[in-house]
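Before surveying the methods themselves, it helps to consider a single example record, giving the amino acid sequence and backbone structure tokens:
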Amino acid sequence: IDLGHGMDGTQAAEAILATVDIPIVFVSSHTEPEVVGKTEKITSYGYVVKNTGIVVLDASIKMALKLFREKVDRKRAQKLQLLSTAILGVLNQPLTLREATRSIIGLIKQETDIDAVGIRLKDGEDYPYFCEDGLGEDFLLAENSVVLRNDNGVVCKGPDGFPCLECTCGLVLAEKAGPPGDHVTPAGSIWTNDSLATLEELHADDPRLKPRDRCSHDGFQSVALIPIRIDHRVVGLLHLNDRRKDRFTPETIHFFEELTATFAIAAKRKQTESAPPGDLRT
């Protein structure tokens, strides 16, 4: 509470909270009701009287962090619920698939503050970006196609007759993401909150065909690739990129998996309404 000349601890806390939302625990020798009352007007997570011991202080800090995480999780869940409602509204509008996709990408960027969002959809044997926002022209020139081609430009195919697909997007699109683990979900999504560390883990035994790692090289640290399925067949993916670490949680990835399932249902309906059979790109 006492910080010497100038502002006191409660004023310092208010100034800090005006800039960033973090948990605050007050530690003071003051026990007067009026002093404690001043801290109760501030979003704090505990008041520890000095000399009560390290055990009490440690427990207070842990409780503060737990309460703060619960608050953040609640706010995130509420925000995702609002995003889901807004996207359902877009999908129910009389828009073309491209118009709806552009609106959805805009909503995702606006409500989640993710740096870059893109959706790939099947077009012939390839899966170029159908719509995107934030990936950049150079990125798209290098990464728009995911099929492996020989020196003559012919699409290379595997023993199963399907095109060979490159890099991490190719793993998701080809449903070869591998067994569920730290970076792979049961639904076949691949995600990381530290792309450079993930690349180091893959270095010795990389399952990808012709890795490009453009996302990491362009400074995107949090990356998520979520498959889009129509009639149990992968027809594209949702691509989320952010330059900050720790932007995703298992819960947010699950949310986007449910979102792509809803998007796929609407895409199939819009395809039936306005496009020839097999064409997803109207």
Notes: Strands lie at 26-28, 47-49, 116-121, 129-133, 190-192, 222-230, 233-242. The chain has a mean pLDDT of 91.
